[in-house]
C-alpha cells in the first residue's frame, strides 16, 4: 500500500518507515500537519497514519480538514493521548482506528491490514495490469488460471510495476520505492525479486511480462 505517515517524532518516523517498508508498503513522511495535508492533496495514498500532537496544524484539525475535503482513505490515529475520551474524540472526528503509544509493531501491522480489508469489502488494495490483479493487502495475485500468495516485498514490487506499466523503471527507482532510499539492500536482491515476480506471473497463467531494458531497468507489458 501507499501509506502517508504524518508524525513529527523523527526517530519514530525512521522506525515506522523501516517497519512498513519491510512489510511491503511504500511510505511518504510528513512531519507537520500542513505538510501532511499538502502531501494528501497532491499524492495518491491508500491509507494514512496520523499523530495527534503535530506542529502548525494539530492532528485533530488535520483530520477534520481531510474529511471535510472529501478524502475517504482509512486513517489510523497513532498518539500518546489514550484516555477513553481521547479515543472517542478521535473516532468521532473521522478516524477509522485509534492506537496509543507505546504500541506493539505486530498489532499496528495487523490493524493496517484490517483497515485495508474493511474499506475494500474484505479485500485489500487491488491493482490490475492486463489479465492479472494484485490484492496488495491480502498479498494475493490472481490470473487466468488461478491465484497464488506473494510475500510483502513481492507485493510491493508488483504493485509499483503494475501501476507504472509500459514505463521503463530504473533499477535505482525500484530500490528506492520498494526498499527505501536509506536501505542498504544490494542490487542482487532486486534481481532475485524480479525472478520471483516473473515466476508468480507464470504460475497464474498471465501474459504480462517483466522485460529487462538493458542498461536502464525494467518495463511491464502484456504480450
TrEMBL record:
Residue ranges occupied by any OmpR/PhoB-type domain in the UniProt entry: 124-222
Residue ranges: DNA binding: 124-222
CDD domains named among the record's database cross-references: REC_OmpR, trans_reg_C
Entry keywords, A to Z: DNA-binding, Phosphoprotein, Transcription, Transcription regulation, Two-component regulatory system
Database matches in Pfam families: Response_reg (PF00072), Trans_reg_C (PF00486)
InterPro entries membership: CheY-like_superfamily, OmpR/PhoB-type_DNA-bd, Sig_transdc_resp-reg_C-effctor, Sig_transdc_resp-reg_receiver, WalR-like, WH-like_DNA-bd_sf
4-aspartylphosphate PTM sites in chain numbering: 51
Tree of life domain: Bacteria
Sequence ranges assigned to domain Response regulatory in this UniProt record: 2-116
SUPFAM superfamilies in UniProt: C-terminal effector domain of the bipartite response regulators (SSF46894), CheY-like (SSF52172)
Signal sequence extent: none
Function recorded in the entry: May play the central regulatory role in sporulation. It may be an element of the effector pathway responsible for the activation of sporulation genes in response to nutritional stress. Spo0A may act in concert with spo0H (a sigma factor) to control the expression of some genes that are critical to the sporulation process.
Protein known as: Stage 0 sporulation protein A homolog
